[in-house]
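Contributing new records

If you add data, match the layout below exactly. Sequence lines come first and carry their own label; structure lines follow with theirs. Keep one chain per record. Anything else will be rejected by the validation script.
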Amino acid sequence: MASASIFGIIPILFMLVLGGLGIYCLILFIQLAQRGITALDIYINEKRNRNY
C-alpha cells in the first residue's frame, strides 16, 4: 500500500518542479526582453543624435 502512494506522489512532485522551472524561465525571459528593449532604445537614440 505504501508503494502505491509513493507512485502517486512522484508525478505530482514532478509536475510541481516543472511548473516552478517554467515560471522561473518565464521570469528570466521577461528580464532578458526588458534589457533588450533598453539596449534597442539606447541604440536608436545614438543613431538619431548622430544624424543631427
